[in-house]
Amino acid sequence: MKQFIGVGFIFLCIPLLWGVQHSIMSELSKAHAAHDELQGSLKLEEQQTNLPIIIKDRNGTTVSEQYVEWRNPLELSSIPLFIQHLFISSEDRGFYEHCGYDVSAIARAFAVNAASEDRRQGGSTITQQVVRMRFLTTEKTYERKFRELLYAAEIEKQSSKDDILEMYLNEMYFGHQVYGIGAAATYYFSRPLDQLNEAEMAFISAIPNNPSLYDPLRHFDKTKKRQELLLSLLVQDGTITAEEYEAYKQYPIKLTIKKKAQGYDAYSSYVLAELEELVSQAEGYDKKIQDATSAEEKETWESSLHNRTSEIAQSGIIIETALVGNKQLHDEAALDALLPANGLQAGAVVIDNDTREIISLYAGKGYRKADFNRAYQAYRQPGSAIKPLLVYGPFLESGPYTERTPIDSSNICIGSYCPTNIGGYRYGFTTLGEAFRYSHNTAAVRLLRTVGLERAFEFLERFHFMKVTEEDKSYSAALGGFSKGVTPLEMASAYSSFLDGTFQPARAIRTVSTYDGEPLYQWNDKRETIWSTSTTATMRSMMRDVVNNGTGQGIRSATSYTGAKTGTTNHYKDIWVAGFNERYTTAVWIGRDNPQPIKYASDQKIHLRAFNALLEE
Fold first, then answer.
1. Which of 71, 263, 442, 590 is the most buried (most CB within 10 A)?
2. Which domains does the chain have, with CATH numbers?
3. Whole-angstrom Cα distance, residue 434 to residue 345?
4. What angle do CA 526, 531, 532 make, to 5 degrees?
5. What is the rounded distance in angstroms from the CA atom of residue 150 to the CA atom of residue 136?
6. Do β-strands 178-179 and 70-71 pair in parallel, antiparallel, or remain unpaired?
7. Per-residue pLDDT reduced to its tens digit, 239-249
8. With contact defined as beta carbons under 8 Å apart, do 172 and 71 qualify?
9. DSSP codes of every residue in 584-611
């Protein structure tokens, strides 16, 4: 009978054994597949993180930080041994001995989980935690745990223990979108890690175990209690003495939460736009976009440039700029006060004459981060402000002319195009200087015809006006008639050529580097001679005359030289003034975002008052 029962039991176990064998084969198959996947796809160097963009002014002071996650990665050699001991003692005592996972710890966790019928008990090594942070979710399933072990073993083959520990310490989460021990130091204490004492180091080291429970802003006492636990583990290890433990435990913890630098939004937003232009020039995207043979190809290269710039920005960079913070704040306050609360807007740029750098810009009244920046994004018709660049400068270059040269300002028609002067006034013969002083339209069109469209636009092309195209080559351009228009930045940059006859594009960025100080990009612009010495002298004289006797009366001459040219479009929809004094060059546009007549602004000389404010120290 017993024999019969035994045989029957064996037969009953066959399906169970088959099932067990099938499960084993299935898991082995998954293991082989996972191993093959690891061999083919696990590349640690491909890990990407969003590191902050740090923007600094000309004195090296951080004025803006662009980030969603606050990170400050450090090399392991820059992380104090005290910190390293803290985490190894509390998280993975066998870190330097195991092959990525600790079998005994896993067994203990499995036993606890099985007994309690839940899966809360851990058992993860530092290597496994790196795997979770980089490659897997925190889902608590045995399948995910199995993959975690395979990844951990593979990482141990590819990386040294020090590399793994460095990854761990730089990628742990410390709450409040703060990642890494270096970032935690600067966030919670506003000091770099190497300037913290042992008590402070242990305090922030308490957070990652449970960033919600040990959030020092909400649960300071709980964080402090865990800090003391971590210090006690170091006593057990012999890393510190009992006396040191008592001293560290008693040391007062005073948090100084980091405030995100978010000032100078108008300037900073332009800097990020200029960064893409800098990358484009440095890596040849500008030529590829220019040489594109179709709209689709151009769009592809533009998209590629945008992605490349984002990649560089997210890698963590420091941008040194020419910003003069006090000047930026002064200019914003002055123009905000000048503009009435009726929708009237302005855009302006101020350039340092010596360096040809952008030291401040005005993006518009009420500007907020990511708004439309009128300093470099507002393309508007320049009116007569374009005449020095397109008409008078080229005309002076075409012959031995001076401001006393007689010219014809009488009415003119070229085909069906018959320009008129402001107010409908008619003029006869006058001097070049007088026509410039009062901005005679008829004289400007006649001079442009004398120079020739092609020749005149060759001069204009050297100033890099982005949206001036072939279709703009018409005689109406002499009065600022363009299909798209120009920006205050472009105008100020171009006007700087009348300082000494040379041109160098105005830039905000000085250098772009990594956090470690490795240079990445900087402009390599060369100054180019545009105007002869005689042309430059004549233009400066005529621009001074505009301020003293012409359409620029109202502009203050606070230094030994101030010169300018004004511009107004049809029906007073756009009002301009551009020029310079001994220190600064500027261009300011006044108008509405949806163009409407604003003659009252011209009558009140708001543009001239803005110009005065921008040229102040």
1. 590
2. 69-250 (1.10.3810.10), 334-505+526-614 (3.40.710.10)
3. 31
4. 115
5. 12
6. parallel
7. 999 999 999 99
8. no
9. EEEEEEEE-SS----HHHHHTTHHHHHH
Output the DSSP codes for 129-171: HHHHHHT------HHHHHHHHHHHHHHHHHS-HHHHHHHHHHH
What tokens appear for 616 in the block? 């102040």
Q: Count Cβ neighbours within 10 Å for each residue of 277-316 and write b for 16 or more, e otherwise.
A: bbbbeebebeebbeeeeeeeeeeebbeebeeebeebbbeb
Residue 76 CB-half CA count within 13 A: 11
Question: Sheet harboring 574-581: ordered strands across?
Answer: 357-362, 345-352, 584-591, 574-581, 562-568
pLDDT(8) > 80: no
Q: Mean pLDDT of all residues in the chain?
A: 89
Tokens for 291, please give them: 């040489």
Tell me whether strands 345-352 and 317-321 are parallel, antiparallel or unpaired.
Answer: unpaired
Distance CA 387, CA 391 (A): 5
31-35, 137-141, 410-414: range with lowest mean pLDDT: 31-35
Q: For residue 604, give every residue at least 6 positions away whose Cβ sits within 8 Å of its Cβ, in sequence order, or none.
A: none
- Exposed / middle / buried, residue 561 (Cβ in 10 Å: 0-12, 13-18, 19+): middle
Q: In the numeric block, which tokens belong to residue 194?
A: 């190497």
Q: Could you list the active site residues?
A: 91, 384
Q: Are strands 574-581 and 562-568 parallel, antiparallel or unpaired?
A: antiparallel
Helix, coil or strand: residue 408 = strand
Burial of 428 (0-12, 13-18, 19+ CB in 10 A): exposed
Centre a 10 Å sphere on the Cβ of residue 43 and count the other Cβ atoms it contains: 8
CB 572, CB 381: distance < 8 Å: no
Residue bearing the bigger pLDDT, 498 or 26? 498
